[in-house]
User: What shape does this take?
Amino acid sequence: MLKVYNVFLVFGEGLIAVVLFMQKKINNTFLSLKLGDITKETADAIVNAANHTLLGGGGVDGAIHKAGGTQILNECIEIRKRQGGCKTGDAVITTAGRLNARFVIHTVGPKWQGGSFNEDELLASAYKTSLRLAYDNKVETIAFPSISTGAYKFPVARAAEIALKTAAGFLQEYDFKEVRFVLFTDEVLEEYYRTIAGLKD
Ligand code: AR6
Assistant: This one.
């Protein structure tokens, strides 16, 4: 069952902010959606929408490295030395520097090229390998951004369906406390909301 919470925050001068938060229970795991900046989240693992170099970039990647500090980049450089970066659809793990997390999981989503270059499968793989890596590291709460829907231009509705269905499928077999999607804009949150509302119980 999908639960939608409206949290009303009332400030001085009568200013009211409405915070939307949605949650669906899948077996033992809460699958939740919220609007926000992922670098401000508290979770065991925060997922980064990285690129194959693992050396940082713009969007979430830039924000995570900026907020988390150089320790994350140094660990990424070590991983590059060992395995030469990260393939599309794959993921690697580092500690989380100054973020309120134990780990950052860096995954590489596909660039949208029209839909006939395996983009759907590669995006699903980015979520699956991240969840698997998290599970193997005893992560209980994990926060995802909407991978590939910024600089990589994956259509948001299609990405939301892949993200939520892949997570829901994984949760049929594996338990976490919470898998959280932290979405940066109202438009992206709305697409995820539409999709989660359509997921079968
Ligand atoms: N918290 C949550 N979501 C965010 C944040 C944030 N702080 N900042 C942006 N988003 P993108 P991609 C949203 O471009 O499409 C980088 O340069 C954003 O609105 O970060 O996978 C990497 O180095 C969008 O919905 O990732 C790669 O080169 C979503 O996060 C490339 O971009 C993903 O946008 C990866 O592109």
